[in-house]
Amino acid sequence: MQFVDSHCHINSPDLVANEAAVMRNAALNGVGHMLCVNLNLDDFPQVIGFAERYPNVFASVGIHPNEDLTQQVTADQLTKLATHERVVAIGETGLDYFRSTGDLDWQKQRFRVHIEASKDSKKPLIIHTRNAAIDTMNILKDNHASECGGVMHCFAEDWAVAEQALELGFYISMSGIVTYKNAEEVKDVAKRTPLDKLLVETDSPYLAPVPHRGKTNEPAFVKHTAEYIAELRGISLNDIAKATTSNFFKLFRHAQAVSG
What we know:
single chain, alpha/beta, TIM Barrel, 8-stranded parallel β-sheet
């Protein structure tokens, strides 16, 4: 049984310090592949470095919405970086009105640039949204993001938002949040999302699932999230593993599976 951690930050200092153990634990827990997601252009070489060292690790390129507004980029720059053979996605990108405040037109414009780069590169989007669901969905619709597709990562909204994303052809990715006691809306989405549109992730080193909540998260823990969703849906863990793995490679079509 194999899992894919569809969104992690294994280049973060907490995980880099224990890189060998992190990768070993992932393998021991059946995590066959993982996507190391880029947060800013300064870190891009490090993200690519992981993907070059490990054939089962893929990379993205993009600027997180909370990164300083001085980190501007053009669609052409992103598209050029996305030509690297280990890059399978654009992002993470989107809107975050929780950590960033004030006039956020710069954040919206940078989001649009990422959508353009996704369409140009033909590599899907990784979407981050927090306290900004209405504007996020409107920008995706207005900029025809259905042409490139993507995933709503670390989903923490309600079913109404999930439905809009699914209508655009986007996938829904569940993190450890779904295992938290009070995350009722997220649990509802995990139960209702079509199995062929579901992904699992850690977003490590953040948001460790129960029973590791409060600890440093790592790709190995994605198995706990998958187990919880299987129980929620009343299906086998193997069904969740097979579906989410298949979905990953359908969405991130530039990612090549490795055996063993």
